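thoughts on my protein:
***
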Amino acid sequence: MKIFAVSIDNFRGIRTAKIKLPAHGVLIGDNNTGKSSVLEAIDLVLGPDRLNRRPPVDEHDFYLGRYLAEATPVEEDDEAAAGVAEAPKIVVEVTLTDLSAEQRARFGGSIEWLDQKSGSFYQGPTPEGVDAADVGAALRVTFIGEYDAEEDDFTGTTFYSRSLLEETTPTPFTKRDKQHCGFLYLRGIRTGSRALSLEHGSLLDIILRLKEIRPQMWEETISTLAAIDVASKPELGLTGVLESINEALKKYVPREWGVQPHLKVSNLTREHLRKVVTAFIATGDGAHAAPFFRQGAGTINMLVLALLSQIAADKQNVMFAMEEVETAIRS
């Protein structure tokens, strides 16, 4: 089995793309041009364990971070046409060819016939006027990721592509099905996963200490967060639930124990903020910024080297030990 083509919509930095792959393909390009995103997209479709993560996608997996439905623009004289557009979805379709006899037997009902020369699909294996040598069995599989407003969470499922068109209830492409495809995505070890966070021992934390900079930001940040009352609007319904809990609590404990329960953004401690404060970076043409560790692998590795060089420049004597250095400097 091999990947013949990949179609990607609304995934990370890719608005839309269709890629036809050769028998042996190598992705070459500058940092943040989408190489890692293409592999991540394929993993959403074929990776046996990829969708075990909950949620399977998040806000930053959507193109420009847009996952909510937006109002459709209308002309002034056409108010009746006003409405809400469909919420953006992440859609990734992978076309597989060179199926083994075992794979044909397992996926038989979903197999299609592909003219590998033109990329067209046919109902039968030997359509009239087409060289039979160019036509072979193929399997299309599609991942769909979206925001579920009712559950207030992100969902993602892989389906047999044909079932999306031919069946009222699409057929999922299960983990067992994916195991029969044999796809394995070997990710490099991302040494920069904490590089631009403020956790103790991060590269940014080391640089601040070397420069003897102690940013006095915690008190102001904690005060700002403390003033944010999460989900306090009555129409959301959460306020009423908390008030009923408060009333019930007062029946069993001293009155002063259950005073106005409400939600806050975080635990409001320095240590907690160190774990969640991180740098966001905008790349490409858009202004949408994503956490630095969600950038391309090459960009992250270059970022690590840049921070290490900054540390070296600020110290007279410094020694670095880096595992798998050839991976970190490959870009």
User: Anything to note?
Assistant: The first helix runs from residue 35 to 46. The chain has ten helices and nine strands. The mean pLDDT is 82.
